[in-house]
């Protein structure tokens, strides 16, 4: 869910007079309508969903739920006012949350989290665990899984949760008050000069890459082979450092955290990501917005779906060694819309994932290229941003292949330059996964409020202030996940003054480790899952040999 600046100044519509009860809301969702609750307003988003800057999947995860917290931290006040034009009704007073009288809205299960998309069941095994949990309490007439809309209304009733609506409602109310305090304290105030310092750093890295490349190519004679090679490698290191650092600005722009103007931040992000870095900001926004909304959910968060390379949750490993024809071979990803199987490649790699972690992270940038370009080819909207970004990628690869790699005098040096420049970016990929890979991946259902979910699934990385530039704000992920539009350079103060005390007040575990300890925790989690896979494979072999 991202801010759309085009919606900045519409006339304020009148609130709808029509009233929907929760039962009526469920009936209409079961028919296939895209209805989202915001406080007491019911938004009908069937048409807008295809134009939403944050993608359609972001909205689908909140059908039948009160998305108050998510909407208000992801959007400006002007955009929230714009949303009212989509309000078709108010939620009936007797069904709406009112803590003063102890009344709580009971969320419905979004159809996408039951495996339904575009009017039909995505796949026979889509979100099978959620379906099994819900079908156990259904009547016998509704135990056969519907293949398309309309759905049995009772399917939308969520299964029991380990948390309670009362607790989550109180945390949500406290989070709303926290957000107001943060706004009143000026934490959303932009400080553009902070990016002046960032740009100076970027320019210095770019100069270093150019100067040492120029020295190697035109000044150092070929007879001084080792010195020429060293100069090329220093250039590669500088270029990699530039890519590592500008990625943080692209991240800020994707969250509309630089200017708070949608089109301008999007333009900055596209230029930085594609023209300078060769990556797709459009892919990143589509992927990353989902990650923020359903953080660490094995079936829905694409940022933890790395089969067959990594598995960070037992949920990603099928419970049976030899699935039958009617049993899943792995979890269904609602983002990628495919099964994540425990196939031969996964069975070969996963037992060693804890040993391969840093090796794979060193070349993870190549995976970002693959994800970027597959998204642009297969999923991206063909709008102006698609064409601006596509041009940027053409420019990037023309520059990198023709003006960087081609002039290098030997294939061995070209490959070394390519690998060194990309390996230097590897801290970024470790930083991306560090805050989540070792955290809780359990699903507490739609009953869990936004703040609880973000704090439960996210870890901060402790470091001195003078190293903030190295981590680019990714080390203060709890504050960032709670307030994604907050300017990066205000995150430290927000964390210390507001977020850490809030966690203590609400009895929520605020998890923070230093960089080394945090990586140790990640590797331990990977080793734990690797052990489970080894046991599963041993059982499979024993079954195949008739020993079990």
What does the model show?
Belongs to the fatty acid desaturase type 1 family. Keywords: Heme, Iron, Lipid metabolism, Membrane, Metal-binding, Oxidoreductase, Sphingolipid metabolism, Transmembrane, Transmembrane helix. It comes from Malassezia arunalokei. Among the domains are: 1-97, Flavocytochrome B2, Chain A, domain 1 (Roll), CATH 3.10.120.10; 109-157, no CATH class. The protein is 51% helix and 6% strand. The protein has helices at residues 22-30, 56-60, 68-74, 77-83, 128-135, 165-184, 193-219, 225-254, 262-276, 281-293, 344-349, 353-362, 365-378, 384-405, 411-423, 426-434, 450-456, 468-471, 477-482, 491-506, 515-544; strands spanning 19-20, 35-38, 41-44, 87-91, 116-117, 120-121, 330-333, 338-341, 459-462, 511-514. Strands 1-4-3-2 form a four-stranded mixed beta sheet.
């Amino acid at each position: 869910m991202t801010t759309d600046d085009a919606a900045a100044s519409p006339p304020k519509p009148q609130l709808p007079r029509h009233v929907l009860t929760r039962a009526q809301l469920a009936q209409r969702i079961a028919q296939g309508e895209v209805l989202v609750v915001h406080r007491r307003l019911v938004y009908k988003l069937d048409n807008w969903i295809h134009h939403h800057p944050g993608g359609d999947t972001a909205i689908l995860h909140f059908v039948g739920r009160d998305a108050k917290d998510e909407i208000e931290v992801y959007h400006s006040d002007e955009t929230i006012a714009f949303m009212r034009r989509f309000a078709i009704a108010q939620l009936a007073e007797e069904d709406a949350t009112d803590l003063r009288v102890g009344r709580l809205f009971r969320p419905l299960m979004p159809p996408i989290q039951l495996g339904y998309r575009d009017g039909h069941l995505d796949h026979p095994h889509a979100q099978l665990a959620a379906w099994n949990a819900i079908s156990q309490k259904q009547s016998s007439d509704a135990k056969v899984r519907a293949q398309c809309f309309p759905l049995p209304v009772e399917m939308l009733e969520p299964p029991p949760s380990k948390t309670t609506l009362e607790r989550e409602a109180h945390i949500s109310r406290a989070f709303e008050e926290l957000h107001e305090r943060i706004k009143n304290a000026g934490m959303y105030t932009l400080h553009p000069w902070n990016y002046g310092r960032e740009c100076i750093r970027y320019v210095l890295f770019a100069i270093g890459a150019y100067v040492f490349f120029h020295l190697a190519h035109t000044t150092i004679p070929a007879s001084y082979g080792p010195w020429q090679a060293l100069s090329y490698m220093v250039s590669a290191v500088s270029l990699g450092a530039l890519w590592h650092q500008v990625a943080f600005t692209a991240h800020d722009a994707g969250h509309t955290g630089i200017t708070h103007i949608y089109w301008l931040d999007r333009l900055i992000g596209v230029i930085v990501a594609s023209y300078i870095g060769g990556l797709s900001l459009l892919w990143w926004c589509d992927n990353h917005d989902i990650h923020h909304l359903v953080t660490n959910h094995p079936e829905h968060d694409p940022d933890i779906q790395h089969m067959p390379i990594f598995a960070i949750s037992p949920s990603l490993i099928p419970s049976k060694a030899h699935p039958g024809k009617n049993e899943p071979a792995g979890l269904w990803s609602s983002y990628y819309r495919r099964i994540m199987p425990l196939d031969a490649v996964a069975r070969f790699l996963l037992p060693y994932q804890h040993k391969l972690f840093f090796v794979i992270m060193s070349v993870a940038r190549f995976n970002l290229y693959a994800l970027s370009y597959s998204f642009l080819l297969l999923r991206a909207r063909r709008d102006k941003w698609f064409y601006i970004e596509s041009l940027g990628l053409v420019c990037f690869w023309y520059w990198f292949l023709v003006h960087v790699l081609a002039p290098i005098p030997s294939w061995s040096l070209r490959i070394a330059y390519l690998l060194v420049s990309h390996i230097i970016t590897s801290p970024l990929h470790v930083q991306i996964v560090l805050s989540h890979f070792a955290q809780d991946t359990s699903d507490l259902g739609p009953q869990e409020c936004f703040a609880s979910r973000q704090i439960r699934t996210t870890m901060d990385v402790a470091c001195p202030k003078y190293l903030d530039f190295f981590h680019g704000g990714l080390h203060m992920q709890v504050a960032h996940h709670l307030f994604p539009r907050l300017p990066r350079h205000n995150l430290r103060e927000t964390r210390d003054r507001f977020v850490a005390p809030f966690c203590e007040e609400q009895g929520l575990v605020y998890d923070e480790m230093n960089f080394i300890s945090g990586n140790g925790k990640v590797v331990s989690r990977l080793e734990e899952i690797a052990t489970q896979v080894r046991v599963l494979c041993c059982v499979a072999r024993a079954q195949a040999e008739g020993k079990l």
